[in-house]
Amino acid sequence: MTTRRRHFAIFTTASLPWMTGTAINPLFRAAYLAKDGDRDVTLIIPWLSFKDQDLVYPNKIKFNVPSEQEDYVRKWLQERTAMVPSFTITFYPGKFSKEKRSILPVGDLTEIIEDEVADIAVLEEPEHLTWYHHGRRWKTKFRKVIGIVHTNYLAYVKREKNGFMQAFVLKHINSWVVDIYCHKVIRLSAATQELERSVICNVHGVNPRFLEIGKQKLKEREIGGEKAAFLKGAYYIGKMVWGKGYTELLQLLGEHQTELTGLKMELYGNGEDSDEVKEAAAKLKLDVTVLPGRDHADPIFHDYKVFINPSTTDVVCTTTAEALAMGKIVICANHPSNEFFKQFPNCYTYNTGLEFVKLTLKALSSEPVPLTEQMRHQLSWEAATQRFMHASGLDQDVIYEKPLSSAATWRFMYVAHEWRKTLEEASATFHNTVSGIEAARCAFGAIPNTLQPDEQQSKELGLKLQRL
């Protein structure tokens, strides 16, 4: 076995200042893979032109050139980790789909990485990145392609008109593209759809700032007594759209107002459904206040004792992990997306509305269990990086000199492998052909004219404009 310096190319579907999981978690993954200095890491993020920046980035933040956005991303990371890891950031052209509320790639993303260094590709949201991929096959370009499934797309689609039919189609398309483009798939939790060659493992950690907040709250308890650290009651923070837990939360509060008499709770968030959420909360007899969204690390959240998150559309909820890291009690549904959190004593899971009421009252009258060093480590990005390396098989890159089975068995396995490989290549060729037809792309939801970057994006990214 020979050891070589590995190169990780991490492709993701969003970037700061859009505060979404697929912008933040791949950034931390890149930083912690590069932290020790024994790996080369490139983070590839989408570049949006002005028109789309207006639709996506908050507080009217805009970037004239990619280098401005890179400076913003690096500064944000350094403020939260106090380290300056040596990884590269590069951009691919993207366009924002209002219908999907997502950034979709433009052109062939595999061209971003030079052939000479193409080694390991990490596709954060592999289905999203390959739905409309037209170009070189990922498995041909890279030695190993790891897909990390972040989003429960089927749960979101089912909430739309004709949702179950759409989910049926999407499920098979996801399975198809992920199978032909990924060698290995990591599902963050069992809340995602089942996929070929996949394992379930939470390979995300929390921003180290939240672990520091948790340590500070523990010191406050040691100095001022058990009740000194958490002086406020319950809250929830999340993007203010119905699909992000607000439907479940307001339904639970509405159905159990009598049992929860006296409950005081604040909801923090911004989003398309803010006005409707405020209206629904105002109808409750409980003291529920709706407030604008803030950074979860803001001091205003430090004194809350109980984080209530009934969402069942998340895969692994970042804010739940952050609340646990800060030493709070978390109340969440007994759902596959919360399986990782059950190992922590401050995680209370419920199955019914009555259990929700019981656990909420218990949490408000109890004090959180102090986190041990082992618990903190489990929540950290150091542990998440170890889990990623193990789940992807990159910590045991062993090459056997000869088969370990009999000649006949080996021959059968070889023939089966070659047959599967041939079918897979044919399937990939078919996908590449269809994804190159503009009418077919648009019929399946692609943004028109995204086979190649337009003149404006080519100029902004310094790309050679290709004429079709």
Can you describe what's shown?
This protein is an alpha/beta fold and 468 residues long. Helix content is 40%, strand content 16%. The chain contains 17 helices and 14 strands. The chain has an eight-stranded mixed β-sheet with strand order 4-3-2-1-5-6-7-8. It has a six-stranded parallel β-sheet with strand order 11-10-9-12-13-14, sandwiched between helices. Mean pLDDT is 90; it is low at 398-404. GO terms for molecular function: digalactosyldiacylglycerol synthase activity.
Helical/strand content category: alpha/beta
Spatial order of the strands forming the largest sheet: 4-3-2-1-5-6-7-8
The count of domains is 2
Biggest β-sheet: count, sense, barrel? 8 strands, mixed
The proportion of residues in beta strands is 15-25%
Distance from N terminus to C terminus (CA atoms, Å) equals: 45 Å
> Which word captures the global form?
globular
Radius of gyration: 23 Å
Q: Indicate the percent of residues in helices.
A: 25-40%
Number of strands: 14
Mean pLDDT: 90
Number of helices, counting only DSSP H or I runs of 4 residues or more: 17
Low-confidence stretches: 398-404
